[in-house]
Design brief:
CATH superfamily of the largest domain: 2-enoyl-CoA Hydratase, Chain A, domain 1
Order of helices and strands: HEHEHEHEEHHEEEHEHEHHHHHHHEEEEE
Structural class: alpha/beta
Number of strands: 15
Shape: elongated
Number of domains: 3
Radius of gyration: 33 Å
CATH topology of the largest domain: 2-enoyl-CoA Hydratase, Chain A, domain 1
Number of helices: 15
CATH architecture of the largest domain: Alpha-Beta Complex
CATH class of the largest domain: Alpha Beta
Largest sheet: 8 strands, mixed
């Protein structure tokens, strides 16, 4: 009995001392790396969200941010800031070497701040894209966020407030003094928890000896989305949307311009919708605007309320889709983000109008353009040309009258004969006198004249 008990104890001890280490052999801490080495923008925000998702999925022991940023948009920085302070996983940042403006807010949100020898943190004044200071209400909001972040991490909130800027009396006037700290200055004010030149040095000081660093690996879809939410690309897509709609309405059939406009609209709205910036109702506002434009051109005479409303709704849908808002509530939206959206959309709209007026007529009449459109799509069965193209003589210089509205295609009557015709881009009402300026056989080009 005693021998049996002795054997059981021996086996138990062997299991504890030999079996347990073998089961845990090679276990390493997972550290997720987030690189913020660019402006703080929707792409940086997206990278942050995906990195935190990876950390939760892998059960990471820590998240480390390698930071070198001049700043960026306030709403994207605020989103990243909220993600960090609500994280159950500790977040460390290595300022390598810049944490300016929005970067300072993000750094203060982290559990610990490490800096390289050239590290700098501060200069968090809220400015426009042209480096102009925004009104004090925006500065006040930024100061509150900076103070709250500092207090949360046990730092002096007054120092954080000075990074945004405080008024200092100089003679008879006040000047805004903005604080930026070097590494040694930050250490004295407890705004730097340690010195490090590499990520490994940060992790060593945090007690990690056996670890592996993982980071987000972007798929082709991720790279496409990041490409499409670039403001320059968004502006180019808006230009294609507007120009495509115009040229489609100017041609007699459904063809390349409409396909280009639809494709550009999908590429514009899809990534914004996936990033939860564009809501369904904002896209519907844009579609309603397009519908009113079509109604104005094909149903209602002239260019009035429906057409103007259509343009306004289209532009409104494009702008709102770029801005984080809740049914026109912009309480938590930075002014510079609204300004950026306005600049992108309105500049693209103005450029598209210039392009249309500069090249509209020539482009519609060009042979490559005509090959790209399906000119027979809108032909109506109730009109037939009185003479075949092979039988009739050239109509160039002859005068006639429109028997349908020309938008810009329609029907004209010369003498007793009826022909399909196309204006040079302008719209003409029914019963308008016209003259044939070109007769290409399969296409008759007309313009308005004083009398038939």
């Amino acid at each position: 009995m005693m021998k049996k008990g002795f054997l059981i104890c021996l086996i138990t001890l062997l299991t504890v001392f030999y079996g347990y280490p073998q089961n845990n052999k090679g276990k390493r801490d997972v550290i997720v790396l987030l690189e913020l080495k660019r402006q703080i923008d929707p792409i940086a925000k997206r990278a942050t969200n995906k990195s935190f998702e990876l950390a939760e999925k892998k059960g990471a022991s820590a998240i480390i941010i390698d930071m070198n940023t001049p700043g960026g948009t306030l709403n994207d920085a605020d989103s990243i800031h909220e993600k960090i302070i609500n994280s159950k996983i500790p977040v460390y940042v290595l300022i390598n070497p810049n944490a300016a403006s929005a970067g300072a807010l993000i750094a203060l949100s982290c559990n610990k701040i490490y800096m390289t020898k050239a590290g700098r943190i501060g200069a968090a004044t809220v400015v426009t894209g042209n480096a102009q200071e925004l009104p004090d209400k925006y500065q006040s909001y930024m100061r509150a966020m900076m103070r709250a972040s500092a207090e949360l991490r046990g730092r002096n909130p007054e120092i954080a407030e000075k990074m945004v800027g405080i008024p200092v009396k100089e003679g008879d006037s006040f000047a805004i003094k903005v604080l930026t700290l070097t590494r040694s200055e930050a250490e004295k004010l407890c705004y730097c928890d340690g010195r490090a030149e590499t990520l490994d040095e940060v992790l060593t000081q945090e007690g990690f000896t056996n670890y592996k660093i993982e980071e987000v690996h972007y798929t082709i879809i991720d790279k496409i989305i990041n490409f499409l939410i670039n403001p320059v690309i968004q502006g180019f897509l808006i230009l294609i949307i507007i120009a495509g709609i115009y040229y489609e309405l100017q041609t007699p059939g459904v063809g390349f311009p409409l396909a280009a406009a639809i494709t550009a609209a999908v590429l514009y709205f899809a990534p914004l919708y996936l990033e939860q910036l564009a809501a369904s109702w904002e896209i519907l506002v844009f579609i309603l605007g397009v519908g009113l434009m079509i109604l104005e051109i094909f149903v209602l005479p002239g260019f009035g309320i429906a057409g103007i409303s259509g343009i306004v709704l289209m532009l409104t849908g494009l702008i709102l889709s770029m801005v984080d808002n809740v049914y026109f509530d912009f309480k938590f939206t930075a002014a510079d983000e609204v300004v950026r959206a306005l600049l992108v959309v309105m500049s693209s709209f103005i450029i598209s109008v210039i392009v249309i007026f500069a090249t509209g007529g020539q482009m519609i009449r060009s042979k490559p353009f005509q090959r790209l459109v399906l000119q027979s799509a809108l032909e109506k069965p109730d009109f037939r040309e009185s003479e075949s193209k092979e039988e009739r003589a050239s109509l160039s210089g002859m005068k006639g009258i429109t028997i349908t509205p020309m938008r810009p295609s329609g029907k004209i009557q010369i003498g007793e004969n009826v022909y399909n015709a196309l204006t040079e881009g302008e719209y003409l009402k029914k019963n308008t006198s016209v003259v044939v300026v070109n007769d290409f056989g399969n296409k008759i080009i007309v313009r308005e004249c004083s009398e038939a």
